[in-house]
Amino acid sequence: MVAPLASWPWSNLGSCKYLLYGPLVAKVLYSRYNVDRGISVESSSWCLHLLALSLLRGFIHQAWFSFSSMLFLTRRRRIIKDGVDFEQIDKEWDWDNFLILQVFMGAALFYMFPSLINLPIWDFRGLIMAALLHVSVSEPLFYCAHRLLHRGPLFEKYHSTHHSSKVLQSFTAGFGTPLEHLVMSIVMGAPVVGANLMGFGSMGLVYGYILFFDFMRCLGHSNVEVFPHRIFHAFPFLRYIVYTPTYHSLHHTEKNSNFCLFMPLFDLLGGTLNDRSWELQKEISSAKDDQVPAFVFLAHVVDVAFSLHSPFILRSFSSSPFSVRLWILLLWPGAFIIMLFMWAFSKTFLLSFYNIRGRLHQTWLVPRYGFQYFLPFAKDGINDQIELAILRADKMGIKVLSLAALNKNEALNGGGTLFVNKHPNLKVRVVHGNTLTAAVILNEIPPNVGEVFLTGATSKLGRAIALYLCRKKIRVMMLTLSTERFLKIQKEAPVEFQQYLVQVTKYQAAQNCKTWIVGKWLTPREQRWAPRGTHFHQFVVPPIISFRRDCTYGKLAAMRLPKDVQGLGMCEYKLDRGVVHACHAGGVVHSLEGWTHHEVGAIDVDRIDIVWRAALKHGLKPV
């Protein structure tokens, strides 16, 4: 049986919980549209203030999350180095429940004290009184209540939920039980209510103090040390006036010290000050700790809408497979402006990371959008960005760098050969990962298939797939208008298998073939030539539209990462959680195997089975 006040009454409502704001919204709208009937707008102004406060408080939590998740800015100052995984994200999904609770409590206050509706805009005396009440009431009250919550039964039933999060984030500040937030509401409300009862209240105080309270809570849970240690050496008394993210993180990791709200003075007086607080703060704020990853995946942005899927934008959105939603249209103009800025000024930056068997794997992002790769004048600039990333990785001591789809485009840089030839002494291994991509596609084809239709047949992947299948005595209809390219590929096959490679120039040739391997975009009209029951395997970017209801469509080649992956909390494009594109997985396997060769240019057909077996050996699984 769940303990009283240990779970939220609306926990089963999902997103429908936001309908609980409905009565406040209805009251505001009703009064606004019925002013001519003598209904005072002021009577509903408190509803508007409660809604505005709730929105602003949510924005503060989101802003702190975005800042702390911008790893390209904060990676060296992170306190707990682990990533936030899907388990923690799901656990904290309803972090904002406390906002609904406190809106209800605020509404009750306005009903009990109607005079609060007519508060002045500002009263400086209220600010002084609230500060005094904060130090004399809120801080000691929270300190005592917090220590009480750490005792046996109370901790297990209530406070352990908050401490179950491994990596602190601003959303963790709101993650807790109703009892905890009732206590927090009293602690936060005491200075505001007290100042109002003394006649020094103002709307400025209500907004200012509550937003300051949330700001400081988020600061402590940000997991990024924002204070330079020199300030505490210059002004030692500040150590007891304001807490730091490092100070609060020690409370979460050791649980028996640093109980204060915002002022370590009360831990000093209570004898619960952690002796390591300032030394650790100095160590982290010096920003000298920069972990070198074993593997880097060099990604790129697909389009403007997908840029909103970045892990520092919206955590709930990026932790689910990408899909276009209506609210994206509202943010699209802002994302477009940021795109122009990134195009002009930005360099490659760290996007996310995860760990496999103690090895750090990072994703770096080239700030270039899909359409830019097809602009002739942008070619040199994109290659410069990729080259700088490779040289940076080489300087850092990274072992393997894998190129995402368009970053290894044949027309752009020959599948990475441009960089390997230009810098023959590279220690970092450059990998396009297409060998595993080919292996994934080939292992999707049923063993009883005797004939396939292949588009994009003369591409890097198309060539490898054709040469592999012909060795299995599978007839491959290669769609290409270039006889010269076809004959060149055919000559690469052993003489006894060359007969299984057949050139076709029209889609009509495949009207009786039910296995299509798509490496070139297909229009709905071209898909009509496929017979009923056809399965479309594909390695074309972006994927083709699922136009035929009587056919089935495979997804882009992908693999599920090993079970022991840690700190992964972002979905890669439209793939499910824990699944990455095969070219990404190919780099992971290259790193785990410790291979010392570059994987660039044409695919070595003889290595397809070797790479596939290595992937399965390390726990990667086909999707």
Describe the fold and architecture.
The chain is 46% helix and 11% strand. With 623 residues, it is of the alpha/beta class. It has 3 domains: 17-240, no CATH class; 295-431 and 560-622, no CATH class; 436-556, Rossmann fold. The strands form 3 sheets. A 6-stranded mixed beta sheet has the order 5-4-1-3-2-13. A hairpin with a 2-residue loop joins strand 2 and strand 3 (359-369). Helix 8 (178-197) packs antiparallel against helix 9 (203-220). The protein is elongated. The two termini are 39 Å apart. InterPro entries: CER1-like_C, Fatty_acid_hydroxylase, NAD(P)-bd_dom_sf, Sterol_Desaturase_Related. It is an enzyme of class 4 (lyase). Belongs to the sterol desaturase family.
Condensed summary:
This protein has helices at 22-33, 45-69, 71-74, 86-91, 97-112, 124-149, 152-163, 178-197, 203-220, 229-234, 245-254, 265-270, 277-285, 304-307, 315-318, 326-345, 379-396, 410-413, 417-422, 434-444, 460-471, 483-492, 524-527, 582-593, 608-617; strands at 295-301, 349-356, 359-369, 400-403, 429-431, 451-454, 475-479, 501-504, 515-518, 535-538, 552-553, 558-560, 565-566, 579-581, 621-622. With 623 residues, the chain is an alpha/beta fold.
